[in-house]
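User: Can you predict the 3D structure for this chain?
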Amino acid sequence: MGSHISPYGTDSTYLDGQLLVAMPGMMDERFARAVIFICAHSSEGAMGIILNRPAANVTMPDLLVQLEILPEVERIRLPQKVETMQVLVGGPVETSRGFVLHSPDFHLAQSTLPIDDSICLTATIDILRAIAAGRGPENAVLALGYAGWGAGQLETEMQANGWLNCPADAELVFNTAADLRYEMALRRIGIEPAMLSMEAGHA
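Assistant: Here is the predicted structure, written as structure tokens:
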């Protein structure tokens, strides 16, 4: 994991590259049982991608055709990897915009944000063009939209026991089925999912 040093010379408390895992007491139904990968976190706020909400009835080939990156007749020529690439509902903000979390073997100058040693974020149409042409990253998931917090908002929610956090890793982000990510993330924190009662406010 890349270590983040704050400007004050002490280890940063910011959560870039961490997973947020919603506790059962999460009051906001948009984030119930959510696992969120935090892409950026600073004193100004935070943004992240929900990893365990597959987009209903939307596939990667559908999107490439809709965005006119790919003519309909070319669909059948797409690599198998592109056919099966996960499309997620990444959060309630900018839901028509695509955000790609991907392995660091792909980089666009001025566009790609390395988050840690194994995961980057690119949110331009160019990465979708590269994926369609078979020149994209080895591992990638596409999210439509993101989750955002204003200054201090995420910290307040964490103090209220809304979220737990743990380091993310490429295995969970890229190679785990979306519906298994919540249980997997809880186990990373050391919690057996079956032990969480619905009114648990304190882990």
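The chain has one domain: 18-195. The mean pLDDT is 88.
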